[in-house]
């Protein structure tokens, strides 16, 4: 566990190790997401599949994983979990602020903190997946500069909206061109040979 850093006001953030972070998730997940119905597909795995899953998980241990916990004094009020998914992309997997601490700018501050850390690590893009009705988080992501980049349906979580943050504005512009929302200009125009 790292030393806490001030996040916003009296709220602090710190990196945690895997096991204590897993315990925090187990304790607070249902409080943060009381209406989420998750399909626990892992209970369907047989011993061979469990062994394979653990082996595959161990193969990616060297990838960057951030387990951030937000505290107010000794009280845990939120978290963010994510992992490196490629040499240029980081995937934000799960973030939450507990109900009594919402609407105070904590999530937005945690998002800025996370993006600053990832930028300094050298990532090019950050992805995240959200329930299609999770407007509060989707709005916060869009305000922070994330772009809607897709939808998917999973057996575990149902319908999800995919968002992507591009650290390089030229790549964000190229996406705008690709979806027909922007006319190409500058280096994007020359690279796409318009």
Record keyword descriptors for this entry.
8 strands, 36% helix, alpha+beta, 194 residues, single chain, 8-stranded mixed sheet, 6 helices, 2 domains, 31% strand
Structure, described:
The model has no long low-confidence stretch (mean pLDDT 90). Helix 3 (106-121) packs across helix 4 (135-144). This protein has helices at residues 18-32, 47-59, 106-121, 135-144, 169-178, 186-191, and strands spanning 5-8, 11-15, 65-72, 75-84, 89-97, 125-131, 147-154, 158-166. Strands 1-2-3-4-5-6-8-7 form an 8-stranded mixed sheet, sandwiched between helices. It is globular and about 55 Å long. The protein folds into 2 domains: 1-97, no CATH class; 124-194, no CATH class. The protein is an alpha+beta fold and 194 residues long.
